[in-house]
Each structure stands twice: as structure tokens, then as C-alpha cells.
Specification:
alpha+beta; four-stranded mixed sheet; 4 helices
Length: 160
């Protein structure tokens, strides 16, 4: 099979593939799970404010959810959400190809995000969600404020 745009040879889709085309399959396989540009920018901005954190870690090992930044002592989990995958109110659009599949996928992602927030909050964690399009320095400032408040509360409890 040949790519219509480039004329390059394109491998056939495996029979069990959910992708609508070989190009879609290649595109989806190239999506990174961590160390994206927005993630690196947020980490750099947080580090510049003196914050130290774990990267790509489960806040609660028994719960199969991985946060992008984790502050174990302050019990803060930071998720940097992509506009497409997590249904950004400003930038999300339903895909033109296979729209029903992607609309259902987006709804499931949102439901899982809400469940993750609830589970972590019930366990005493603060959850901070940052959109990929947000300014990383402003997001890091929000994070620093939350971090300082959580640590002040912890110090107050320990002083009693």
C-alpha cells in the first residue's frame, strides 16, 4: 500500500487495530506518555521556584493512576492534561475521523479524571490539573502557592 500524499510504502493495518488508517496508527503510536514539551516546561518552571518532585509516579501505589508531578510530603498530585485527550473547554474538538469512537473515548477520559481526583482527595491528596496550553510559569506559581499552603497546614498540625 502507498501513502497518497508522499507515495511512500505504508504497512498494512493489523486486523485487530482500532486505527482508521495506517497514518492514524503511526500518529497515535508516536504520542509520548511523558516528557512532552508542556510537561518539561512546567517541570522547569516548578524547579526554578525551588520545588522538588517525583516525575511520572503513582501517588497511591494501589491506585493505577500516574501523576505527572508528585509531591509526597505535601501530598500533591499534578496532572498536565492535553487539550484533546482530556476535553479542554477552550480547545477540544471532536475528530472528523471516527467521531463516535473519539467522543466516547473523551467522555471516558473525563470520567476517569474525575474518579482519579475523587480517589486522591478522599485519601488526603490535593490534585492540581494544568492544561497543556497554560503558561508554565503561571501554573508553577499556582503549584508553589498550593505547596506552601499544604506545608504550612502540616507544620501547624505538627506544632500542636
Amino acid at each position: 500500500m502507498r501513502d497518497q500524499m508522499t507515495g511512500d510504502s505504508v504497512p498494512e493495518l493489523p486486523e485487530d487495530s482500532w486505527a482508521s488508517s495506517p497514518g492514524t496508527r503511526r500518529s497515535m503510536q508516536s504520542n509520548k506518555g511523558r516528557d512532552t514539551k508542556p510537561e518539561l516546561a512546567l517541570r522547569s518552571a516548578a524547579h526554578a521556584l525551588g520545588l522538588r518532585y517525583y516525575v511520572s509516579k503513582r501517588p497511591i501505589p494501589a491506585i493505577r493512576r500516574t501523576a505527572d508531578l508528585v509531591f509526597t510530603r505535601a501530598r500533591i498530585a499534578v496532572f498536565l492534561d492535553g487539550c484533546f485527550w482530556h476535553v479542554c473547554p477552550d480547545h477540544f474538538t471532536v475528530s472528523q475521523t471516527n467521531p463516535q469512537y473519539w467522543a466516547e473515548k473523551a467522555a471516558k477520559n473525563r470520567a476517569r479524571d474525575r474518579q482519579t481526583d475523587r480517589l486522591l482527595q478522599e485519601a488526603g491528596w490535593a490534585v492540581l490539573r494544568v492544561w497543556e496550553h497554560e503558561d508554565p510559569h503561571q501554573a508553577a506559581a499556582r503549584l508553589k502557592d498550593l505547596y506552601d499552603r499544604r506545608n504550612a497546614t502540616r507544620r501547624d498540625r505538627n506544632a500542636r
